[in-house]
Specification:
It is built from twelve helices and 15 strands. It is α+β, with helices and mostly antiparallel strands and 445 residues long. The strands form five sheets. The protein has a four-stranded antiparallel beta sheet with strand order 5-6-4-14. A four-stranded antiparallel beta sheet has the order 8-7-11-12, with helices on one face.
């Protein structure tokens, strides 16, 4: 076996524990009387409706405007875009076309203390601002220049599966857009909804007829979504709140606290079992498990910029717990394989090398099936809502949360429980006082 230098174990272990501490508690400091957050911890998680409660609001077009179904879809798209951009994944959103109403349910903010439903819904109901900007952020044209947008198929490409978004501009907008496309030919123009970038197409020709096409690798759903978002910025009406109310949580803060204590006790018991049963491999597994939990928590708190903020629901917690079980199982498989190699007469180094290698296939097979299921759950019940017309919008956020935390947990298991645990194991075996078979699950010295 090719040994890894002995200091590597201590370096990796310290880094994992330090990362876990910052992921759980966050990093904050005070600037005078104002607390500023550098890294978000557990207390900064946005809890779902089922845990902390939230708001239910009904919106309608202002001034009794008679909106079409397409206009309601566009207004609904605005609200959805704002919620997703704010990391709200536990929400229910649907339109009642017969009465020109949009109904939405969403959780309180993570730092909400006054629980004021009026303040919570103001941002969602605000009139959308659509702008076309250059790469330096200069506004070149706003939504008033767009007459309509709709999804279509690019028949000129010879393929019936190339979806696009077709824009029709107003007379004044057509003149403005012609000047813009002439000035920015072969350059990108970004389309923004409020402060959210929707698309950044490249100008491929000077467009003078008042009709433009946005092409790209769109699916049918993506093309429809972008068209609705653009239409939302050009709606002839604003939204007003028809009614609102607070939603009580089904779990409550006391139950959440009890769940937290139960989780700590469970982790301690698991750690004791692993160390007593498997000794050194068990100790390594416990450190890796702490790292896995920390990485899973970081995935829901926006610890890294690659992760979006996330709403944690009861099914989301269940997904995290299930992934922890899979992480423990992966380390048990490895430790048992090492013990089997001892029974066959292998030396300490040979048993660790062979045991870690033989366990890898079983771990990957078991985890990959879960990865596939998690991705399917996220695609079907996530913000893309691929099959929400079958299962209903009310199930979207909760099932998405389960798939998301389960997927993040499995990925964390691969990083911590499969890769780094093997690095630590092959490093710690080089420490002279620990080079005894019984410390690694074998018998004798």
């Amino acid at each position: 076996m090719k040994r890894i230098p002995k200091p590597v174990f201590f370096i990796v272990a310290i880094l994992i524990l330090a990362f876990a501490a910052t992921a759980v508690f966050g990093v904050k400091y005070y600037d005078g009387d104002i607390q500023k957050t550098v890294i978000k911890g557990i207390e900064d998680i946005r809890w779902g409706i089922d845990i902390r409660g939230g708001v239910e609001a009904t919106f309608k077009p202002a001034d009794n405007y008679d909106a079409t179904d397409e206009q309601l879809d566009s207004a609904k798209s605005i609200i959805e875009t704002r919620m997703v951009s704010n990391g709200i994944t536990d929400y229910e959103l649907y339109a009642d076309y017969s009465s020109d109403r949009i109904i939405v349910r969403f959780p309180w903010k993570e730092d909400e203390k006054d629980f004021d439903p009026v303040a919570a819904i103001d941002e969602l109901a605000a009139t959308a601002k659509l702008t076309f900007q250059n790469t330096s952020g200069e506004v070149l044209m706003d939504g008033s220049a767009v007459k309509s947008a709709q999804a279509g198929v690019n028949t000129e490409s010879g393929s019936s599966t190339e979806y696009m978004v077709m824009l029709e501009l107003t007379d004044e907008g057509a003149q403005t857009f012609a000047s813009i496309t002439e000035q920015y030919l072969n350059q990108q123009i970004a389309i923004y909804m409020d402060d959210i970038q929707l698309s950044a197409p490249t100008v491929q020709a000077v467009i003078t007829g008042g009709h433009a096409q946005i092409t790209g690798n769109f699916t049918a759903e993506e093309a429809v979504e972008l068209a609705n978002q653009i239409n939302g910025g050009a709606l002839p009406f604003s939204l007003e709140t028809a009614s609102y109310s607070s939603i009580s949580p089904t779990l409550g803060s006391n139950s959440l606290t009890a769940m937290g204590y139960a989780a700590v006790i469970a982790i301690i018991l698991i750690a004791l079992f692993m160390i007593i049963r498997y000794r050194v491999p068990g100790l390594v597994a416990v450190i890796a498990l702490i790292g896995q939990l920390a990485l899973s928590i970081a995935a829901v708190t926006r610890y890294f910029n690659v992760f979006t903020s996330f709403t944690m629901t009861l099914p989301g917690i269940a997904g995290m717990i299930l992934s922890v079980g899979m992480g423990v199982d992966a380390n048990i498989i490895t430790a048992e394989r090492i013990k089997e190699e001892f029974y066959s007469g292998k030396t300490l180094d040979a048993a660790i090398e062979k045991g870690t290698k033989n366990s890898l296939t079983a771990i990957i097979d078991g985890n990959m099936t879960v990865v596939i299921v998690s991705i399917i759950l996220m695609l079907v019940f996530g913000p893309s809502n691929i099959l929400s017309w079958i299962f209903g919008a009310s199930t979207t956020g909760t099932i998405y949360a389960f798939g998301y935390t389960l997927l993040m947990g499995v990925i964390s298991n691969f990083i911590m429980g499969v890769f780094l645990s093997r690095v630590m194991l092959k490093s710690i075996v080089g420490i002279k006082c620990l080079r005894k078979k019984w410390l690694f699950g074998g018998e004798g010295k």
